[in-house]
Amino acid sequence: MLSDADQLGAATPSQTTLLVNHFLFRDLGPEIQERLRSLARVRRVARGATIFSKGDPGTSLFAVASGIVRVTALSPQGKNAVFNLIHEGEIFGEIALLDGKPRTADAVAFSDCSLLVIERRDFMPLLRDHPELTLRLLEVLCSRLRRTTEQVEDILFLDLKSRLVKTLLRLAETEGGEITISQDHLSQMVGMSREMINKQLQVWVKWGWISLARRRIKILDPESLARILAEEEASA
């Protein structure tokens, strides 16, 4: 059951504009876009709150109107692995939405979030009536699969330092050069201890490649970092 702060409410026009401008929906006609606007509801979630857990029923599709969502899985030993960070304008929860089966991971608010929610019972008729929407959703799923495959390859073929570089450059590209993330969360994404993360980051601070502040990493010299990755990939 949702808390008072988590209750669903009506979406504003600016929030639904973000939804209909998404790759999935932006080329649909105005009639379908208006239907989406009427179906979307807003859920506000405080930083650190669980949006859904692995094994929960997959009853809705989410779009991030503001904030960042962290998608994770917990090992039997209690270790967290971060699969993805979902930023403003992106969707998540589409796998369980399509097949109606339980959620495959946990979704947690990485910051205070406003989420647009469309229920599965409302979304499935859209897919049946508009096959082009189904094809676009398959493209989103293929993109997720490619990203997962890349993560597995990185674990198998890249050393820890190169995995850290690749993660930093990818996050910096998404967030505009300054990354908002703790070293604990970064260690969960890379598969590297926080102590090792901090040690390597301090080296790059000394060399002038990055700067550090509380929960923030600013990339100052992306070219030097990229050379580390290029040299590792060339020697593989």
Give an account of the 3D structure:
The chain is α+β, with helices and mostly antiparallel strands and 236 residues long. The chain folds into two domains: 4-148, Jelly Rolls (Sandwich); 158-235, Winged helix-like DNA-binding domain superfamily/Winged helix DNA-binding domain (Arc Repressor Mutant, subunit A, Orthogonal Bundle), CATH 1.10.10. It is built from nine helices and twelve strands. It has helices spanning 13-20, 30-39, 94-99, 120-129, 131-157, 160-175, 183-190, 194-206, 222-235, and strands at 8-10, 41-45, 50-52, 60-66, 69-74, 80-86, 91-92, 106-109, 113-119, 178-180, 210-213, 216-219. A hairpin with a 2-residue loop joins strand 11 and strand 12 (216-219). Helix 4 crosses helix 5 and helix 6 (160-175) packs across helix 9 (222-235). The longest helix has 27 residues, at 131-157. It is elongated. The model is unreliable at 1-5 (pLDDT under 50).
CATH superfamily of the largest domain: Jelly Rolls
Helical fraction equals 40-55%
Shape: elongated
Largest sheet: 5 strands, antiparallel
- Our estimate of the beta-strand percent is 15-25%
Concise account of the structure shown:
With 236 residues, this protein is α+β, with helices and mostly antiparallel strands.
